[in-house]
Fold this protein.
Amino acid sequence: MTQHQSKNPWIWVPSLYLTESLPYVIIITVSVIMYKSLGVSNSDIGLYTSFLYLPWVIKPIWSPILELFGNKKQWFLTMQLILSLVFLGVGLTTGLNQFFLITLAFFWMGAFASATNDIASDGLYLIALKPDQQSFFVGMRSTFYRVGMITGQGLIVIGAGFLEEKFGDPSTAWSWTMIGVAGLMLLLTGINFLATPKVIEERVSKEDQPSFGKVFSSFFTKKNIGLSLAFVLLYRLGESQLVKMASPFFLDDRAKGGLGLTVTEVGYLYGTLGVIALLVGGIVGGILISRHGLGKWMIPMVFAINAPNLGYVLLSWYQPESILFPATVVLIEQLGYGFGFAAYMVFLIFLAEGLYKTAHYALATGFMALGMMVPGMISGYMQEWLGYPGFFVWVVIATIPSFIMAYSAKYPKEFGKKSEA
């Protein structure tokens, strides 16, 4: 492959992955806060917002289309424009009587566009950078992916909370918030049009062009694929449930077992302390793997991503009046998540190695989404059954399989290490 135009990855990697993560977090995470503010039950929130993961689970079905046809840059720019329209639709319908059904339908369309955007964006990353660059920039990539998530959970939620206080009406506040998100997506699309490189993509000749079946089967015949997929599914088993109920826990009244924080306070927790901690954790994680390889840091990173869940157990037991305790827990959690997620991302890159990198990476991330979707769907029911203290104890227990898989997974211990040459 040959690049038409050389662009600095320090510029386009951050912008591309910020734009990849922002619609994801709005659809999957911010929707939870929005629906909680609008009075939807925890069980419905857990079930239906987790079901929105489905497009990310099944995106490998259409990923070969992007592998075999079209241009990655054209694909992700088109999807980002569609996402701008989707969020505009959510913003214009939030105040309707049937808002839950209608906005879910828009989020559902957005989920398919966002999943396709992920395939194309990841494909460009894999073909535009050399292997050692991929390992080095995984820290930057995962960090700005998480920055996009914190932007959604933090700054956008803070804005929604401010508008709630101003208008005294959650529906109006979230309507204007989503219209603002649509404008932000349009702006980011323009930035990506200018910043990302143009690449001539290597194509297989027509007579040798593989069928969809061959692309899929070549993934499932990889060495130790069963163990690798178990790792992908179970690495975040606890986190997949925690992430759905953390915001409802912060927002619920103290009489219901929550902390009674405002939407604005929840936004500040994730949008200030969370951003700083996650930036540090993600960048340090990527740099350390590029220096020493994945093998040296896998076990420390699985501890980092799971151990902070104990903080939520303490929060639910003591229900502190001060925001200092929750802020400390979020700080430690985000630092550990940024650090631990770097190992997960490098493992996914390892799993995608081979001829069909874009399609195989889409398959790997599809299983990643499945590992978030299924546990998340039951999280609301588990919380209502066990209460918040019992639920967070269950989350800690659910981290045990991730430790087992981190010890058991097979991969080159030096994978991800920067070449000396």
Notes: Confidence is low (pLDDT under 50) at residues 1-5.
